[in-house]
Write a structure and sequence with these properties.
The chain is 0% helix and 47% strand. It is mainly beta. A 6-stranded mixed beta sheet has the order 2-10-9-4-5-6, with no helix packed on it. The chain has a 4-stranded antiparallel beta sheet with strand order 1-3-8-7, with no helix packed on it. The radius of gyration is 13 Å and the shape is globular.
């Protein structure tokens, strides 16, 4: 089982990024997937979740209306579209399959700064 995040980078406030997470080693289409983030010096926090079929999505209040989670089960990939980025969105972003002890990937760094 492996998760590989990508798509992070440096962006100005108000900008956008699209993160991807490719999953390997399990039947991706059978599982809910979540995005998390860990800001510098803070604990990891939950950001968004999506059901196995993609028909239900959930967001933390801090990102609601700005971030959008989606998935492509044919590509075993979950996405996080991030718009109207703020400096407080700066963090390492991770995806995971909650409740199954799936090893964390390396994450992808998002830095929002002018």
């Amino acid at each position: 089982v492996q998760l590989v995040e990508s798509g992070g980078g440096l962006v100005q406030p108000g900008g956008s990024l699209r993160l991807s997470c490719a999953a390997y080693g399990f039947t991706f289409s059978s599982y809910t997937m979540h995005w998390y983030r860990q800001p510098p010096g803070k604990e990891r926090e939950w950001v968004a979740g999506i059901s196995s079929a993609g028909d239900s999505v959930y967001y933390a209040d801090s990102v609601k209306g700005r971030f959008s989670i989606s998935r492509d089960n044919a590509k075993n990939t979950v996405y996080l579209q991030m718009n109207s980025l703020k400096p407080e969105d700066t963090a390492v972003y991770y995806c995971n399959r909650p409740g199954w002890g799936t090893p964390w990937g390396q994450g992808t760094q998002v830095t929002v700064s002018s």
